Prior knowledge:
Elements: H1 17-25, H2 33-37, E1 44-48, E2 51-54, E3 59-62, H3 65-68, H4 77-87, H5 101-113, E4 120-124, H6 127-144, E5 152-156, H7 165-170, E6 188-190, E7 194-198, E8 201-206, H8 208-221, E9 225-230, E10 234-235, E11 241-242, H9 247-257, E12 261-265, H10 279-283, E13 289-292, E14 304-308, H11 310-314, H12 336-354, H13 357-373, E15 379-385, E16 388-393, H14 409-419, E17 422-423, E18 425-427, E19 430-433, H15 441-458
Parallel strand pairs: 3-17, 5-6, 5-9, 9-12, 12-13
Antiparallel strand pairs: 1-2, 2-3, 4-14, 7-8, 10-11, 13-14, 15-16, 16-19, 18-19
Helix pairs in contact: 4-12, 5-12, 8-9, 13-15, 14-15
Amino acid sequence: MLSTLPVTAEPSSRVDPTLAADRQHVWHPFTQMQEYFAQPALAIASGQGGWLTDTAGKTYLDGNASVWTNVHGHNDPDLNAALRTQLGQVAHSTMLGLTHPVGAELAAELSALAPAGLSRTFFSDNGSNAVEIALKLSFQYWQLTGRPEKIGVIGMAGGYHGDTFGAMAVGDSGFFHDRFRPWCFPAHHFAAPSCREWGGKIRAANTTASLASLQALLAEHAGTTACLIIEPSVQGAAGMRLQPPGFIREVAALCRAHKVHLILDEVFVAFGRLGSMLVCTEEGVTPDFLCLAKGLTAGYLPLAATLAREEIFSAFLGSYESGRAFYHGHTFTGNPLAAAVALANIRKLRALISAGTLRSRSACFGRLIDDTFFSHPHVRDIRQRGFTAALDLAPSREGTATFPVADRVGLQICLRAREHGLLLRPLGDTLLLVPPLCLSEVELGELVHRTLQAINDILPN
């Protein structure tokens, strides 16, 4: 049975006070504000399921899951109930020397979800902080165990781990962070593997050069390297760059052989985004540190977690005067409201995964992407896995010609998509489709169809 799509109200002509205040006072992230002021303004007032409604009454399909966080949809009754219940008890209580029921329960739940051995959880409030914590824990561990020379970090080309200085230092995100390089510590980067996949089929893949590059770095620098950090399976901010299945196992084996900590940054890919709860569990890999955020609270509240092995935790134990404690923390560490929503999210996700619902929806998404864009004259490449997809746009499918940067083709298409009732965000001239996991097959069809309409409006065949 086909689901009914929301009805869009006619926009009002009144002056919107939200937009007026926004123009006067807000500085938006990852946004050239001069360009923003020249665009039609849009303020979101409410949401239901996979849809958002602006202050003028127009409804949009949320095609980027509110920056890759939304899982069960907006205004989900089960998550709302969990939040209300916790709000009736305590909204926040510090974890600096104290604990609370939902924080302790969530830490236990995360350890149960993760590969055996990841028994300790350090909470924070976003992915960048989760990564900073993992880096600092690795550095301090080696100091505490008599290897202070192990201070280096290896990342993978194209990696994006956040915008704080440690996260920028270990990433390789080009124009995102280049101007801040003078303030970052040095890090090595190995070549990324190549993999093209969509519609559930790997079209091309190669790991040989990537693993050889990593082996060479480890052979030369393992003695002074503390850790290696990588986004497993999909590098989101790099344009949904994929790794072949099994690649992360090879990386983990090399790290173990060279006694280098492995940090898996699953901030983007965990909690159903690729169909499973955690990529590392699906791949059979146990990292030394696991970083989680985004989908952890299904897009409701800021919460992040860094999981660590018990043997690493043990190295920090000692008397107060030994100075072995980890001096790091955040005011809202383990916030009870966020923890309660995270627990409800995990319960719902576990049911969707075990029922095969996520698998069938992501397969549908892949088929729709394949059928719609495989032969499109302006889509040069496609990468799709789970509930992620990237469409590389170009003047033609063949050759290497690209659009002039000043044309802002990707942005034009996303602005046009709004006219079709769809919210997308580009990465240059690559369109990223990252739907909430709750979308029905009909709604996934709408996402793909409206994307096609917007592309064809700006780039007619």
